């Protein structure tokens, strides 16, 4: 494996950071690396907000479910799916723009995720640690108001960045045979059962937060109730009507 593949396969979520600051010039290079990601039809349907205001970061930490590292990380970014900029640019050419299409929501969300992952990999290549914060979708309207997000823009997730103050183990992934198939979709229950054993051993032996669980049981809270049922109405209110 080359160094890039090794880096990608060594990803961990970092939730404890030193007080060392990230140079502004480096942060800009990370954002530029994000911009180099693939983007559907060159739409570049994203905006990244660097939240520096202490009070705002503390409020977002609270809104995201009490995740204190939102406030304590060296840098906190909010990645937003942004259809305001591209539709506005098209409209200025005289086009009769149709807003609120489901495909626009998908394009903006995918573009944002690809851009953010480039930022994450670039950051890790520089010795930084990162942690995605999907918890901002617990209260997306409040986060949007706090960041003055306009219509046709919504916060997809946040990202903490900083120099790691701990060294957690790499969390196992599903066997490649479970997710990589040839020609047709095929059953993968045997791989899931094996992976449950792998994850149970991982949870019981990792250096912090030991627990007796496995992958399938960890999924239960995500699927035995309606997860974030407010999101559809929120997105429609933001102008993503999903027509």
From TrEMBL:
InterPro entries: Flavin_OxRdtase_Frp, Nitroreductase, Nitroreductase-like. Keywords: Flavoprotein, FMN, NADP, Oxidoreductase. It comes from the Bacteria. Signal peptide: none annotated. Its EC number is 1.5.1.38. The keyword tRNA-binding does not apply. NCBIfam families: PRK10765.1 (NF008033). This is Oxygen-insensitive NADPH nitroreductase. It comes from Vreelandella zhaodongensis (Halomonas zhaodongensis).
């Amino acid at each position: 494996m080359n160094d890039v593949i090794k880096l990608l396969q060594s990803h961990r979520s970092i939730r404890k950071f030193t007080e060392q600051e990230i140079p502004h010039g480096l942060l800009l290079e990370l954002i530029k690396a994000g911009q180099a990601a693939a983007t559907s039809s060159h739409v570049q349907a994203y905006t990244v907000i660097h939240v520096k205001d202490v009070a705002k970061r503390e409020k977002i930490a609270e809104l995201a479910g009490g995740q204190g590292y939102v406030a304590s990380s060296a840098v906190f970014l909010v990645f937003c799916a942004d259809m305001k900029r591209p539709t506005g640019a098209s409209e200025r050419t005289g086009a009769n723009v149709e807003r609120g299409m489901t495909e626009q929501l998908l394009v903006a969300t995918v573009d944002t995720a690809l851009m953010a992952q480039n930022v994450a990999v670039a950051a890790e290549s520089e010795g930084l640690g990162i942690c995605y914060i999907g918890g901002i979708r617990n209260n997306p309207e409040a986060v949007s108001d706090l960041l003055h997000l306009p219509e046709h823009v919504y916060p997809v997730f946040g990202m903490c960045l900083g120099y790691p103050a701990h060294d957690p183990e790499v969390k196992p992934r599903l066997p490649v045979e479970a997710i990589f198939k040839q020609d047709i979709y095929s059953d993968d229950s045997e791989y899931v059962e094996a992976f449950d054993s792998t994850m149970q051993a991982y949870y019981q032996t990792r250096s912090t937060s030991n627990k007796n669980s496995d992958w399938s049981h960890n999924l239960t809270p995500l699927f035995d109730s309606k997860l974030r049922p407010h999101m559809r109405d929120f997105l429609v209110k933001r102008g993503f009507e999903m027509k």
